[in-house]
Amino acid sequence: MAAPKRGRSASAQSKPGRALALILIAIVALTGGMFLSGHTTPRLGIDLAGGTSITLEAKADQGSAINKANMDTAVEIMNRRVNGLGVSEAEVQTQGDRNIIVNIPKGTNSKEARDQVGTTAKLYFRPVLAQEATGGAAATSPSPSASGSSTASPSPSASKSGSTGEKATSSSSPSASATSQGRAVTDALKADSTPSASASASSSASPSAPATGGTDTSSAQAKLQAQYTALDCSKKAQRTTAGEGAKPADTTLGCGEISGVWYKYLLGPAAVDGTEVKKAQAVFDTQTAAGWQVTMTFNGKGSKKFAAITGQLAKNTQPQNEFGIVLDGEVVSSPYVQNSITGGSAQISGSFTQDEAQNLANMLSYGALPLSFQEQSVTTVTAALGGDQLHAGLLAGAIGLLLVVVYLVAYYRGLSLVAMASLLVSGILTYVLMALLGPAIGFALNLPAVCGAIVAIGITADSFIVYFERIRDEIREGRSLRPAVERAWPRARRTILVSDFVSFLAAAVLFTVTVGKVQGFAFTLGLTTVLDVVVVFFFTKPLMTLLARRKFFASGSKWSGLDPKSLGAKPPLRRTRRSGPVETKEA
């Protein structure tokens, strides 16, 4: 039984170069990827590099009360919008009883983040009663793009069959006269005021419908018609106030952009609330030519409402068979319906780019805030203080590392070379991964994250110490270095894995239950703990196996840190051959 064991041990000792070559290839590949990406330094957080701070003030909207529950809900949704994984270090927190502060670190797309945060009104699905291109480009602009004229349908095959050209023909209608357009709007308003508004909108909006007199139109309808006629969505001042103050049950106005051309919409009462969208995500359809799509799943109440409104809209002609997805008064999409959509899910398809599909999915997922918010101030945070803090943090890390090195040299002597080489490899891997994770997942290195990296120095050194002490224990038992290195590894390996597992579990729990800067600390601690296992298994152990073959260490030099005499080793273990049977004693 002894021979096979010696054979396995010899085999394990003869191939440490493979593990060292593997980790070397990984370092070279990651470093090359870092330089190719152009991101050669980690992205710094707002406390180190500065950034943008946005102050938002809550406004009571449609009767919603400004209370702690609604403010906490708003903070949670905004945090998911701008923070993604939570390691980008964008902070969202309340200030007082009606303000929310959003801190966005330098290096983040601040304009996109401001759009995500500033677009805070409620999300509604409203039937389209009328639609028209506005501005000087209306008569010469190209037909609306597929991203603005997508098709909502219950299946990918039905989505593919939708023709975007139909909408472009009917919605732009530059040849229609002002009289026929005004008559269509009047009839749409009149139909909308009746119980069967959605069902009759198609016929009432026909150019052949009889004109309605002033006595047949209420003053509110006449005012709304005048506002619709005068609305020019190509002008920012007008489109920002379109539909302002409208309640969900009101007929209102809205603006939406299609292929660079602004369109004005006359929208009916909200049929589905954004809070009734359970989930929305951008997906790429590989089975059909639909490309990027946005899939929606509604809750039970929303499913019934959506099935009812799409069933009514499917009976109409364009644009009355469209529903507008309205967020903060802007029509972000207006897909048309071909048939009733049941089952609680739907797809919005068209010639979306990946960014367009993802942005629409984000709006559908996170658009339903309990309150509306007004941007009060946008300030730039200077990086001067952050530079001093970063300098202090790096200095503290350098002092800590120096103390660890001094201890290792004083106590382990030659073995300290193994520990320092392992720390160097771990540091290179940590730096490269942090630089790559910045553009990949939005990771930002803040002061707590720097603290996590400093703590990791101690965790990594602790793993080396455990292994070195196990080797020393074997030498004290009288074994030579080469078998001591191999016999000590299984015992040290178990201890290292248990210790790192506990550290990683603590980091994972901390990352899950906290937000903001504390997550940066937890993320860095977890990352460096995983790297510690990789370095110990693929670098420290193979390197120790190779050094055990060198005379300086194998002979137990006084400066190697493995001198049997100074360790108080027993006499060398010798194998003895039994000369005869051993007598057993009776109890």
Automatic annotation (TrEMBL):
Domain Protein export membrane protein SecD/SecF C-terminal: 372-549
Domain of life where this protein originates: Bacteria
Keywords: Cell membrane, Membrane, Protein transport, Translocation, Transmembrane, Transmembrane helix, Transport
Region Disordered: start-end pairs: 135-220, 560-587
Annotated localization: Cell membrane
Entry function: Part of the Sec protein translocase complex. Interacts with the SecYEG preprotein conducting channel. SecDF uses the proton motive force (PMF) to complete protein translocation after the ATP-dependent function of SecA.
HAMAP family per UniProt: SecD_B (MF_01463_B)
Protein name: Protein translocase subunit SecD
